[in-house]
Specification:
Elements lengths: L3 E11 L2 E12 L3 E5 L6 H9 L6 E3 L8 E4 L11 H6 L8 H11 L15 H14 L4 E5 L7 H18 L2 E6 L2 H7 L2 E5 L6 E5 L5 H11 L1
Parallel strand pairs: 3-7, 3-8, 5-6, 6-7
Antiparallel strand pairs: 1-2, 1-4, 8-9
Length: 223
Amino acid sequence: MDIMYKIKNLTKKYDGNVIIDNLSLNIKKNKINSIIGRSGIGKTTLLNILSGLDKEYSGDISDFQGKKISFIFQDDRLIDYLSVFDNLKLVLDDEKNAYDIITTALEKCGLQEYSNYYPTKLSGGMRQRINILRAFIVKSEIMLLDEPFKSIDLKLKEDIKNFFVSLHNETGNTCILVEHDIDTVIDISDNINLMSDDKFKLKKHFDDLSDKKRIAQIIREDI
């Protein structure tokens, strides 16, 4: 049986408006759990609550509290005046072993030659690879992803998605990916939650993704 992190009866209001209304959702441990819906319906709000950035809500997210959580945003948020190595080092608690951890991680990903590069000297795709690697090396239990492939050129997107999936397969942490791009969630998810525009309620859940074409069609009709 799959182990779940549970979101129970979560409600979020902003200026008197209900953004998330009594949401209950099961998140499978060690899987890529995707949440898809139109832009502006509450996906990022949910991630902010789960990460602890937003504390003004009602409901139970105790399964997420006290867990080590990493966050991959739409933009890479690399610090331009720090080298790739130092950007990675910044997120590590283990300073003593930082050199070995970072060097090993870069070598595994074939990125060792970029260790001393500054982000301004990297392509957009390379910056996002470093951004993704940075989230993985902290060895978080839960990873939150806010449309991390959105700003990547279409030609590079497949490579970056494969890079992300290979790291996930190696580490096995629990991922919650919010997206509005159907192809992305179909390609990399273990399960998909389709959300409605009406106060961010669960509309459909897909656990068996073997018939990707059919599921993509259902989502396109409902989103």
